[in-house]
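Q: Hi! First time doing this. I have a protein sequence and I read that you can turn it into a structure. Is that right? Here it is:
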Amino acid sequence: MTDVTYGDGLFASERGSGTAIVIAHGGLANHQSVGLWAAPLAEQFRLITPDLRGSGRSHFAGPLGWELLADDIASLARHLGLARIVVGGISFGSGVAVATALRHPALVAGLVVIHPAFGGAELGLLPAQQEAMAAMAGFGQRTLEHGMEALFPLMDRLPEELRARARAVVATYDPASVAATTAFMNSGAQPFARAEDLVAIAAPALVIPGIDLTHPLEVAEVYRRLPDVRFVDTPDFAAAVRTFATMIGGG
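A: Yes, that's right. Below is the predicted 3D structure, encoded as structure tokens:
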């Protein structure tokens, strides 16, 4: 496993060799959360897991936007000398992946959308999503005064063994970055305007629909407008991504 620093102090980790697969983590997570399930992909592919701007070790306290986050993925690819990548993400990260496919189409050989939370401005955030985003933004702002322990109540519902690990990871975060990221998530900004905008993505796509109120099926259904899309309902993300990347000629 190799640490990568690129852009203006952004961080990523890479392992393996072969076709490059870049996978972005969800909100309030970091590259390690992707590694927990995606590590087997490195047996066949070059797996790259960034800390998105404003998350993990990629500290950033300024205003965020989907275009900026997409440009960071393109910058990471350039830094690594990659002309084509399979780009994907889970939850918040899936929005970054979609924004990258729309903004940098020549870079994207394949698109992976796992448990999408963003279905475009026309759909907007659904009520349960609005409630969740507002709660996270509130906790995020509290970190500026009380430090990262202000986020610990968000993990109270996790099993004890996971709760301790999650708290240990979160304790390493930067409060100003967390406040910036959660404020952006709560803004309701979307990576595209209408479902019809997805027609512009020519790359083959894999969608794994969400299974809860913050990743509702209604959002995943928007992605049926992708011209070349496969829907797979599975908890085994790594196996689905491996099959997809191999099918499109990536291994």
